[in-house]
Amino acid sequence: MRYLFFALPLLLLVGLVGVFAFSIDRDASLVRSVLIDRPAPDFTLAAVEGLDVPGFDTDALSGAPSIVNVFASWCIPCRDEHPLLEQLKAQTGIRMFGINHSDAPENARAFLAELGNPYDAIGADRDRRASIDWGVYGVPETFLVDSEGVIVYKHVGPLTPAAIEAELKPAIERLQS
User: Fold this and answer.
1) Which residues of 149-158 are buried (b: 16+ CB within 10 A; e: fewer)?
2) Are 104 and 31 in contact (CB under 8 A)?
3) What's the domain count of the chain?
4) Residue 40: closest CA among 85, 70, 84, 72
5) Percent of the chain with pLDDT over 70
6) Is the pTM of the predicted complex or chain greater than 0.85?
7) Residue 8 domain flag
8) With 144 labelled, which of 17, 56, 97, 103 sits at a CA distance of 20 to 30 A?
9) Residue 6, domain member (yes or no)
């Protein structure tokens, strides 16, 4: 009994070291979403007031592969990521949808007027309901949806050139072939 009293903390320590050792090379930006390989959630988002692009809904994501990017004008990483989204759209031609997360319409319009608009449609998610349904932790987040409306990829945080080249572009190419 006495040995068990001393061995138990040691066993717990060895177990924790094992968990940390197994996770040490894990990329923190790769958060496995419960929505991967499931249909996109049911939603309808109105257009951002004053923009010349429409809002969108779940049905708009069917028919061809699509990127869904959750962004906001107040999000500094979104500003850093934005030129990469424009390049991705120009290089791949993929349909791109934006979910404008908890943002004032005038701020969203100014953000896109300054940085450009890669989106085919942008939905205003002022109450964050759609973002919650998509499992968004924070902005920016990017999803790849196949032509059947099924989410096949999620990237948490701002896209980087490395993530686009190593993960997102190959996934898009698989869907477009």
Assistant:
1) bbbbbbbbbb
2) no
3) 1
4) 70
5) 84
6) no
7) no
8) 103
9) no
